[in-house]
Amino acid sequence: MNAEIIVVGSELLTPFRQDTNSLYLTEKLNQLGVDVRRKTIVADDQKQIAELTRVALSRSDILIFSGGLGPTEDDLTREGVAEALQLELQRDPEMLAAFEVRAAARGWKMTANNHKQADVIAGAIVLANSNGTAPGQWITRKHDGRERILLLLPGPPHELKAIFEEQCMARLRTVLPTQFIVTRVLKITGIGESQCDARVAPIYKGYTDVQTTILAGAGEVQLHLKTHADSIDAAQKRVDKLVEEIENELGDLVFSDTGESLEQIVNYYLQMRNVSLAVAESCTGGLVAERLTSISGSSRYFLGGAVVYSNELKTRFADVPAEMIEKHGAVSEEVARALAEGIRKRCGASFGMGITGIAGPTGGSAEKPVGLVFHALASEAGVEVVRKIFPGDRKHIRWFASQTALDMVRRKLM
Predict the structure, then answer these.
(1) H or E, element range at 322
(2) Is 153 helix (H, G, I), strand (E, B) or coil?
(3) Are 269 and 262 a contacting pair, CB within 8 Å?
(4) Which of 175, 256, 246 is nearest to 205 (CA)?
(5) pLDDT, tens digit, for every residue of 109-168?
(6) Quick count: other Cβ atoms within 10 Å of Cβ 346?
(7) pLDDT tens digits, residue range 186-201?
(8) Which CATH class is domain 262-413?
(9) What is the model's pLDDT at position 96?
């Protein structure tokens, strides 16, 4: 079975408010083996809500509405859905009385517009709202010979979540066929999206029962795999087999096959190898250190380092000879090597990372363009250097540089 989420609220069609309810609902529906095929945000307009409901009924088994159940004139979800279903709204006197009691207990005087929250679509099951005044509604309806389920839920997240978990999850389990969804996320670095897809598309196209989505981010490519089956084992084996084939093709370009970040993987290797790392960062301004220390327990293997933005501090904190900077420039392979070795010795670390580059938008030249970054990784065995020219703005260049630095550590420790 598939589902469609309809989020009602004109404020969500502005730059100032963001929908998060659909993310929560998608997670919960996936746990029930239900695939979410569409998400739509619609304005507080009865005709638009009704029109969208009619279209959704023709293509989706489960329709979940979020928002538009409050007391104000622009809360029109009940009215729009009732219009689409050609059903009447009936004011529930017991619910209205409960509103009055609740308001009195809190010392409020209930205004007339609150009465509309007691309007129930004919035949609906009322879903009590213990965290607010607007109850939800559960409606079953035959359409084109198939039964549809419509859930009307309030917009405030804490109200929606409580109603869905307490009153909808168990009820849905009783009416849904047994089905399981298994997902895996592979994360890849050191290769672009188009190159990655050219290599793995011939593999995943052979798995017609696994949905594959490829996404590109700053410094990494993600492959999202999803499949359905009537048992968790069958779904898991299907995805695992595809993952194995992709990893055989891409090798160590895949840094995670269960969704971890690159910094999580690097921290894992540092701990597993019982080694330590220190960093001397110029253009990344501490970004590598920030990413590593975002992982709990990283103090066991990440010692620290320095942000050596000025030439003076490159010399003072990482022992880079001033004459080297004068001769080769701050952005050079020589200085990157000296940063890595200098910070390693200063901190007594197993490994030292040195990064120097031009993040832009100014400061570049024909010889040393914006985006040029030198990364050096030092150990007792010597120093390795990677030279890269990254595209994009300052933010992207710094992130790409931190990604390359972390990947150098990962590959060394592998």
Answers:
(1) helix 322-328
(2) strand
(3) no
(4) 246
(5) 777 888 899 999 999 999 999 898 899 999 999 998 899 999 999 999 999 999 999 999
(6) 18
(7) 999 999 999 999 999 9
(8) alpha beta
(9) 85
pLDDT value, residue 178: 87
CA distances from 128 to 17, 123, 333 (A): 26, 16, 67
Rounded to whole angstroms, the Cα distance separating 357 from 108 reads 63
Residue type, 183: T
Structural tokens at position 79: 């009215």
Give the Å distances, CA to CA, from 81 to 50, 71, 255, 364.
5, 16, 47, 59
pTM, two decimals, is: 0.82
Domain ranges of the chain: 2-175, 180-256, 262-413
**H-helix or E-strand spanning residue 277:** strand 277-281
Give the Cβ contact number of residue 196 at 10 Å. Answer: 25
Strand 220-229 with 254-256, pairing:
unpaired
Q: Assess contact for 333 and 374: CB atoms under 8 A.
A: yes
Peptide bond just before 361 cis, omega within 30 deg: yes
The Cα–Cα gap between 139 and 280 comes to 61
pLDDT at 115: 86
Choices 2.60.40.10, 3.40.190.10, 3.40.50.300, 3.30.70.2860: CATH for 180-256 = 3.30.70.2860
As given in the structure block, the two tokens for residue 213 are: 């989505």
Residue ranges for the chain with pLDDT beneath 70: none
**Three-state secondary structure readout of 29-82:** HHHCCCEEEEEEEECCCHHHHHHHHHHHHCCCCEEEEECCCCCCCCCCHHHHHH
CATH T-level fold of 2-175: Molybdenum Cofactor Biosythetic Enzyme; Chain A (3.40.980)
The amino acid present at 124, given as its one-letter code, is: A
Query: 236: which 2 tokens?
Result: 């898991």
Q: Which two tokens stand for residue 185?
A: 């996320």
DSSP states of 184-238 as a string?
Answer: EEEEE-SS-HHHHHHHHHHHHTT-TTEEEEEEEETTEEEEEEEEEESSHHHHHHH
**8 A C-beta contact, residue 79 and residue 46:** yes
End-to-end CA distance of the chain: 43
Do the beta carbons of residue 141 and residue 54 sit within 8 Å?
no
Contact partners, residue 350, CB within 8 Å, separation at least 6? 275, 276, 277, 344, 379, 380
Measured distance CA(410)–CA(255) in Å, rounded: 8
